User: Which sequence fits this backbone?
């Protein structure tokens, strides 16, 4: 990941035809190749911002730069922008309009004017990237919600974008589907694709993102490296968010002396691993007087058996 | 849904739609060529046998799909057996049995049956997306194809939306009485209208996001041995037409 900025959003406002303000002076930067989470409550302007970045909406005022140049809203300019910046919508049923997986994925690359052989190649690659090759011939209405989401991503990937925008990608997915989707996003990120997704799940944002942008009332009230999130309690509170559970738990464990102050796990899994790596003497020393130390849970994690 | 189910599950699912279309067209032409009820019935039999034995469509499913159309044909044939005699001596017009029409009706009915069997062969073995791809190859105007694509997709999206709304209404006693049902149905229709409009807008936006501007262009699926299968189907069609001609004599 570089520090080069691929997208710069400079003080944009967006007022809908109904008079409601979607964005009210929003500014933030997206680094090339980074994983970004737009964190905010419902109505904070996340979807409006994503649609601005794909050129579906045009700011009422302010400017968006891509590679340092303002977005070109001419017909050709928008076509070029949408090739580079792809958007996956929240509800797959509102994005998929062909009943065939294969056909729907081919829609974007065909609109780029590519020849048939190239489109076939891209469709196959995109379906493979999201793990949907086996279901390419299935009608869309026979797919699960999670599978439809992956088809939506494939439809955008087939246009080979540099930036992938995802509107609430985890919404409506069960745990297994979320894990599958995360694996897809990790794979895309490792290929150097810049990912910007909107979410209201602070735990997920902290676990996954490189950069977090906190949105509230149409403005970006804080933009920071995800590792610095524990210091952003005020901004999170202003956006109606709380600290991630792992931060709260980590603080409590540090206060008890059970974890060093340098520990900064980003997920509960990492926290458990940190605890498992602590020397057992440490726990005995820090336990309250009269308590019986038990390392059975830690031993179980390491595959040992104990006899009492 | 039965047709959809069969179209995706039959043995000839992966056969080129051009081949299946050619054979169905052959069946329709043979039904047209067949001049006697026996010849037309023979063609119908061949088409049914091809669908059931060749494509392995379930006979039970076939029967369920064919019964409504066949019943409609039977009612139509029955009504053709009677005519109104305006010059009856009794004064007003009278119904009269037309015995001389029986052979004519038998020919029409058997030809219709053969045509029905030919069309059922096509739709029960070919998913609509393949048929649309075939129509695209045949240079059918794009606006018609776009409508077909969207209608087909929306059929499932909106039926799901309607099902959800019906369930939500039933959960709040929306269908507790005939009067409530009527009221709920009105609400459902109104809500569905709004949903259709919103979804249409959302789809237009989604198409724009992928550089769509105007007609919906898709890649047609590729079929292995398409040329060979179409040739076989064309030969079979010619044989069917020849059979219809020979059964006449």
Assistant:
């Amino acid at each position: 990941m570089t520090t080069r900025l691929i997208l710069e959003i400079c003080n944009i406002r967006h007022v809908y035809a109904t008079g409601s303000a979607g964005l009210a002076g929003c500014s933030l930067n997206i680094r090339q190749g980074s994983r970004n989470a737009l964190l905010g409550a419902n109505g904070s302007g996340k979807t409006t911002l994503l649609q601005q970045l794909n050129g579906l909406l045009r700011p009422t005022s302010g400017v968006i730069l891509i590679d340092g140049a303002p977005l070109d809203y001419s017909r050709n300019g928008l076509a070029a922008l949408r090739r580079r910046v792809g958007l996956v919508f929240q509800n797959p049923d509102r994005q998929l309009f062909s009943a065939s997986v294969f056909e729907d994925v081919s829609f974007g690359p065909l609109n780029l004017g590519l020849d048939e052989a190239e489109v076939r190649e891209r469709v196959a690659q995109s379906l493979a990237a999201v793990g949907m090759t086996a279901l390419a011939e299935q009608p869309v209405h026979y797919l699960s919600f999670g599978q439809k989401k992956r088809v939506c991503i494939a439809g955008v990937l087939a246009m080979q974008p540099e930036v992938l925008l995802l509107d609430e990608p985890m919404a409506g997915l069960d745990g297994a589907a979320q894990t599958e989707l995360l694996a897809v996003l990790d794979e895309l990120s490792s290929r150097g694709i810049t990912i910007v997704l909107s979410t209201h799940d602070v735990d997920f944002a902290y676990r996954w993102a490189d950069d977090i942008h906190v949105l509230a009332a149409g403005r970006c009230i804080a933009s920071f490296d995800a590792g610095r999130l524990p210091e952003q309690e005020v901004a999170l509170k202003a956006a109606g968010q709380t600290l991630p559970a792992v931060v709260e738990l980590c603080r409590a464990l540090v206060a008890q002396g059970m974890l060093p102050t340098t520990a900064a796990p980003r997920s509960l899994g990492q926290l458990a691993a940190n605890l498992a790596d602590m020397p057992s003497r440490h726990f005995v020393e820090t336990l309250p007087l009269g308590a019986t130390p038990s390392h059975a849970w830690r031993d179980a994690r390491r595959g040992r058996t104990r006899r009492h | 849904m039965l047709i959809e189910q069969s179209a995706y599950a039959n043995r000839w699912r992966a056969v080129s739609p051009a081949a299946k279309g050619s054979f169905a067209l052959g069946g329709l032409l043979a039904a047209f060529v067949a001049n006697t009820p026996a010849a037309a019935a023979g063609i119908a039999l061949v088409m049914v046998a091809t669908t059931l034995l060749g494509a392995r469509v379930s006979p039970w499913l076939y029967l369920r799909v064919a019964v409504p159309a066949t019943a409609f044909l039977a009612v139509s044939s029955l009504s053709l057996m009677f005519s109104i005699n305006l010059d009856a001596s009794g004064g007003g017009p009278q119904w009269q049995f037309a015995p001389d029409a029986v052979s004519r009706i038998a020919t029409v009915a058997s030809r219709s049956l053969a045509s029905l069997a030919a069309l059922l062969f096509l739709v029960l073995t070919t998913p609509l997306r393949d048929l649309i791809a075939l129509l695209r190859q045949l240079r059918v105007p794009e606006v018609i194809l776009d409508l077909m694509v969207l209608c087909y997709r929306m059929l499932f999206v909106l039926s799901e939306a309607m099902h959800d709304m019906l369930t939500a209404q039933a959960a709040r006693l929306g269908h507790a009485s005939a009067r409530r049902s009527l009221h709920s149905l009105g609400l459902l229709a109104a809500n569905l209208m709004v949903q259709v409009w919103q979804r249409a807008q959302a789809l237009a936006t989604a198409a724009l996001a992928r550089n769509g501007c105007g007609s919906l262009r898709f890649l047609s699926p590729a079929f292995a041995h398409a040329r060979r299968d179409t040739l076989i189907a064309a030969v079979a069609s010619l044989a069917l037409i020849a059979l219809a001609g020979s059964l006449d004599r």
